[in-house]
Design a protein that fits this description.
The complex is a heterodimer of chains A (115) and B (116). Chain A has strands at 5-7, 10-13, 19-24, 31-37, 43-50, 53-56, 65-68, 75-79, 88-95, 105-106, 110-114. Chain A has 115 residues and is mainly beta. The relative contact order of chain B is 0.33. The chains are: A mainly beta (115), B mainly beta (116). The A-B interface holds A 4, 31, 33, 35, 40-45, 48, 55-56, 91, 95, 98-109, 111 and B 32, 36, 41-46, 49, 51, 90, 92, 94-109.
């Protein structure tokens, strides 16, 4: 049973370009979470999605960031007009249900570097 | 809102010594608590979790943690450190029975170094 798959693992973008990060949840999981880890910091929640629905986007920056989890295909975290401060590791996680006792399973992350 | 404080951003122990990583939480309701480990350039792996059952929780690789409500703590311990335990450890909290129940709030992490 494959784990949470994220790609690309490493992405370099110039300031002003767009970054798209993809996440395929574990088989049978319909809940996806995105977290951001800035250098020397813990993970910060960004957004929680179910298929075709954004459930909680309270951690998403108000501008330039968006996320989707379509009926078919992976979840996408999109960052438009990237700036140096967007350089971070972006982790996706998934769970089969929303109940808080459930373990959420993390992918190996996508490292974004903005130059 | 809930929060987590991890005392000590870096901890160094000798191989074979006791590992103690501290975590204190703040939550307006009884929380669920988690410890994750992160190896360099990798994702997070769950070590153990507390979900209001037994207060002493055993996890993988001989790690365990005890939930102490009176101290609002959930410290992680391991009796004997191994070189392979060197990694970053994160404590996290979630709030039960909410609409976004699996949303985790993480501490800033503790880097464990194991020396010979």
């Amino acid at each position: 049973n494959a784990g949470v798959m994220q790609n690309p693992r490493h992405l370099v973008r110039r300031r002003g370009q767009e970054a798209r990060l993809r996440c395929s949840p574990m088989k049978g999981h319909s809940h996806v979470y995105w977290y951001r880890q800035l250098p020397e910091e813990g993970l910060k929640f960004m957004v929680y999605l179910q298929k075709e629905n954004i459930i909680d986007e309270s951690g998403m920056p108000k501008e330039r960031f968006s996320a989707e989890f379509p009926k078919e295909g992976p979840s996408i975290l999109r960052i438009q007009q990237v700036v140096r401060g967007d350089s971070a590791a972006y982790f996706c996680a998934s769970s089969p249900e929303a109940a808080s006792g459930n373990t959420i399973y993390f992918g190996e992350g996508s490292w974004l570097t903005v130059v | 809102a809930q929060s987590v404080t991890q005392l000590g951003s870096h901890v160094s122990v000798s191989e074979g010594a006791l590992v103690l990583l501290r975590c204190n939480y703040s939550s307006s309701v009884p929380p669920y608590l988690f410890w994750y480990v992160q190896y360099p350039n990798q994702g997070l792996q769950l070590l153990l979790k507390y979900t209001s059952a037994a207060t002493l929780v055993k996890g993988i690789n001989d790690f365990e943690a005890e939930f102490k409500k009176s101290e609002t703590s959930f410290h992680l311990t391991k009796p004997s450190a191994h070189m392979s335990d060197a990694a970053e450890y994160f404590c996290a909290v979630s709030v039960p029975n909410t609409g976004t129940a699996s949303k985790l709030t993480f501490g800033t992490g503790t880097r464990l170094q194991v020396t010979l």
